[in-house]
Amino acid sequence: MAGGILPDRDIAQLSADGRIASERPFDADQIQPASLDLRLGAKAYRVRASFLPGRGNPVEAKLSRLSMHEIDLSGGAVLETGCVYIVPLQEALDLPPEIRAATNPKSSTGRLDIFTRVLSDGAQEFDKIPAGYRGPLFLEISPRTFPIVVRPGSRLTQIRFRTGDAQLLEAELSALHETERLTSATDANISGGGIALSIDLAGDQTGLVGYRGKRHTGVVDVDRRAALSMLDYWEPIRRGAVGELVLDPDEFYILVSKEAVHVPPAFAAEMTPFDPLVGEFRVHYAGFFDPGFGHSRAGGSGSRAVLEVRSHDVPFILEDGQIVGRLVYERMASLPDRLYGADLKSNYQAQGLKLSKHFI
Which stretches make up the 2'-deoxycytidine 5'-triphosphate deaminase N-terminal domain (predicted)? Predict the structure, then answer.
């Protein structure tokens, strides 16, 4: 069945119909062109380990057994690196039988190396909400590089609602690229239903190619913009003589794609998980690419994808131009009322290499 991603007006209608319940009214900017930000509730639970509830089991039942202690978030609380927390979210769902949902960290969440996943009652997978689901939502949070401060209403993740089969097939994506030029690459590498993105290690005019997160820093308040000095948290990385970068195991890097991309208003996009057969590292763009990302009608002229990169177990050499992921496009069910970018004063429109909004 043909389907699509529900746009902003349909998300608002789900709320009006009681399909999205919330402890308090939505924030003015909570609904995005093709997604809804989810807000933390009043309490966090430190747990011994990550878990899935499993078929037929509510999350609360597992929490009562695995929780080590309860944390009041009302005045703001620090979540430490290396720990796992579960936070009930303010939003709950009562989805119609034809609508399913998926969640993803917000862009700023990924750029802070905060590992997040959404759980629902009876879930056997993270971040996937089945059609017709009725019940609460919970967020697993594990800061990896920086300790963070959160409070009720902090927004670390977002949810998309889908009907039918929204993803473009390879032939459809190729046809869209012919008319819209989805990437700045001279030869677009389209296969497996996605457009290849490669890493830029040539850098800008100053030779800057990325950043590596520092250890043992101060806390990051996730709700405060432009409040922290970049050099207190990040080590700039300059271009090497041979266009390579050695990734140190378990270090966190912010890099950028060589290609600029854009998402036309009638579509949305998402980076597919990195193929582990290509190397012992993970590249993931946290967050969705909303309609209008990098698009001229929304104040963009192509935007590059910022990439969160981590090597596992062994050092790994990245080379300039190496393919690190694919951008998958999906249809919108209808055009959104507002586009990512100028309509929303979006943080990352027309971006190049860019840290999260918290740093100056």
Answer: 4-164
**What CATH number did the domain enclosing 59 receive?**
2.70.40.10
Report pLDDT digits (tens) over 99-119. Answer: 999 999 999 999 999 999 999
Q: Which of 163, 183, 200 corresponds to the end of one domain?
A: 163
Note whether 45 and 142 are same-domain residues: yes
- pTM: predicted TM-score of the whole model, two decimal places: 0.93
Per-residue pLDDT for 298 more than 50?
no
Specify whether 245 is located in the same domain as 117. Answer: no
pLDDT tens per residue across span 91-102 = 999 999 999 999
